Every structure is written in C-alpha cells, then in structure tokens.
Amino acid sequence: MTRTFSLRWLLLLVTVASGLLGLAVNFPDHAIGLGWFVGTLVPSMILLLLLSLASPRPRSAIACGLLGATVFGFIFMPAILGVGPEPQTIWDYFVTYYLPTAIPASVGALITGGAVVLDDRRAGPSDHQPSDVLSQRRP
Hints:
Layout: H1 7-26, H2 28-54, H3 58-75, H4 90-123, H5 132-135
Helix pairs in contact: 1-2, 2-3, 2-4, 3-4
C-alpha cells in the first residue's frame, strides 16, 4: 500500500503558516506591504502557469516570463500613485492602486514567456531532443 499522507509535511505547513500569521499580527504594516507585492504578482503567476503548460520547455518559459514580469513591472510601474482624492469604494481603490501596478508585470510575463512558447512551437520537438551520445547509458 502506498503512502499518500505525510504527517511531517502537515506539521511543517502548520508551523510555517502559524509563523507567518504571527508575524502578520505583530508587524501589520509589513504584512500589508508583502500582501500588496504578492497580490500584484498573482496575475503574472497565473499567466506563467498557463504558458508553462503550453510549452515543451516549461522551465525556460517560466524563467523568461519572470524576467519579463520583473523588468516590465519596474520600468512601467507608475511613479506616483494616489494623486487626487482618496478612493471612496473598494472598486476605486482597486482601479487607482492595484491595476496600474499589476498590469505591466502581467504584460511583461505574457510578452517574454509567450515569445519562448512561440519559439518552442515553431522549432518543433526535434530541436529539443538530447543527442544520441548523451542519451546512451553507460554499463
């Protein structure tokens, strides 16, 4: 019978989660900043997951997509956020603060990761096969 459940991983997950939640309670300003940063990258991560599923070389698609998300996110992020009246609703807050920071990173991930996927699709599977010398097993 195969083992499908590991108590070690459950305890490790509970320990890490409780540690992170304890830090969030003690340092709420830092937790909000970290949540903002991670939340900004969520659309990019979803795009990278989809691109990696479509690519024969998922590691290269993810690496180039992360590079593109980082570069585009830092170059095209607005310099000054929140000029004008304070948002009144959550939708105003979302449009004013979240979208201008999340869209450039997602576009960068789509452009660079998509370029790798298109290149892999254009090249075909024969270009990525290991050579006969490297794939032979030695006795």
